Amino acid sequence: MSADQLFDALWGERPPASAGKILQGCVVRLRKVLGREAIRTSPHGYTLHLPTEDMDSLRFEDQVGRAREMLTLGEADRAAYLLTEALELWHGEAFAELESWEPAVAAGTRLSELRLEAEELRIDALLRAGRYREVLSEAQALVRAAPLREYRWVVLARAQYQSGQQGEALRTIHQLKAVLAEHLGIDPGPDVIALETSILRQDSSLLVVDAPTASATCPWLGLRPYGLEDAEWFFGRDADVAACLDILARTSVLALIGPSGSGKSSLLRAGVAAALRRRGQHSVTITPGVHPMDSLTALARAPRGAALLIDQCEELFSLCEEPEEQRSTGLGSAVLWLDYSDDGSRLVSGADDGGVSLWDATTLDPLGTSRGRTGPGRRAVHRRQPRRRDRVERRHGLPVGDRPRPGHRLRLPDGGPGPDRGGVGRVPARAALSVRVSRRVRGR
Q1: Fewest beta carbons less than 10 Å away: which of 26, 306, 364, 414?
Q2: With 0-12 CB in 10 A as exposed, 13-18 as middle and 19+ as buried, what is 178?
Q3: pTM over the 0.70 mark
């Protein structure tokens, strides 16, 4: 922001003669509190550089956006939690101290509208999660606070119907019609009419399906690569698998490249090999080792035309010391080579066929990352309880916020949960290690 814009925000059209010096003093004091790099000076004025989590307005918008993504992915509980956290950031009106400054008024109006939407979205998320009994009073309060917002009446009627109050739900819709006609002279939108029809028909889609029983199996494998037998727990790589299969349909050799730990082996075995099996195509997965020709004996037992999938293909060069054996290693019609290096250059130079395609397995897109992290838990019907994690971390002396990543092994050091404790306190608090916060740890 330029100095003139800041003068306008602070003093309006009549800044004092010493406005420049006062502004510089304010910046100095703010830097002492926020850090020297938090406010940077440029030829055009001042720029604020703070993490999103340190600014309530940005954090609020970020969490509402993430909650919408969670709802799209079917994670209603997580969406409700994010929205609850986001709404707790509010204390009064947005930018109330700058009510005379037009840019702040516009930003405050936008944030206030988003706040109303977040309140409605939170009730919607709780309803989708089957928690309709606990939102009835909140839904009624939302309607009283803003009776001209149609969607508030909709979520109230849904909560009433799901609670077994069909008559009250229909009465709510009739009240909405009367309010809109009296104050705005309009009829309700098609969503309201559709909801009324569904209630009258007792449409089963309005009811919440009972949650299935959670599996006792820990669905995350941690640092261990996913194998063919783990395909049902392998999430987040659908786009990569589809791309690999498409490439293999057009060429004879595909090399998956990426640094160690980027998930190449899991993509090969639980992704591509599993997809080939679902298509009815046989495949053989080998690891070359010191004598790669010995590993090829597995092909003798495979049906004709089976795809050869080579995991840790760099071992052809790093472990095998016989040049003749390297050259004599034959490759099938569909081959996946996984390279340990970053660029795959040695791998490609080992192929006689010039038509080698590369696929970078290093990164996941945001949607894939989310599915990879949450998909196994959804399949195992594990319900995430975010509010408890900080208490568990503090109780066991773990760094709050330094939580296990998708690549961490989620398993107790003694192989299973113990009574009441589960052994979390015996695990060193290191990011490279992992902790499984079991239900036993939470006293269940």
Answers
A1: 414
A2: exposed
A3: no
